[in-house]
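Incident log entry.

Two folding requests arrived from the same account within the same minute. Monitoring flagged them as a possible duplicate submission, but the sequences differ. Recording both here for audit purposes.

Request one:
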Amino acid sequence: MNDANVNPLPPMPLTMALVGQRVTFAGVRNAGRGLTHRLAEMGLTPGENLEILNRGSGPFIVSIKGSRFVLGRGMVHRILVRPG
């Protein structure tokens, strides 16, 4: 079977990713242009990799291209990612 014909895993909300996990940004759901633009300014564009640094009861922190970002809980629920 050719790997190009295999469907990738469906995207999941960023809230489901674990600390230390590397994920690939797949898009946003239920978001307006403002959020989409803000994420792009931070370097979050489709296909970009990020790592989860903290996701507990405190702030949700991710690393994107070597920079750390704190994401609001409302934002995190709208961000879709794929493992890997």
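Request two (distinct sequence, not a duplicate):
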Amino acid sequence: MKKLLTAIALTALLSGTAFANSCPTHVKKIDEALATSTASEEVKAQAKALRDEGEKLHSEGGHAESMAKLAEAEALLGIAQ
């Protein structure tokens, strides 16, 4: 699982600012998944923390880093990329 998350994060980082405008779309997908997820409370809390960090990085202009955090949250929740 850790290798998968690392691969997803690396892919997002290498994508650069091409995904700058997609950060809010990913945040919305994560929010929707959190509302209906049957994952454990621990997993949902981790995903929420990653989502919040991703949103913060996006607002600060760190889009590649934001996408990496959002991708990790999506992986935890089983959201297809």
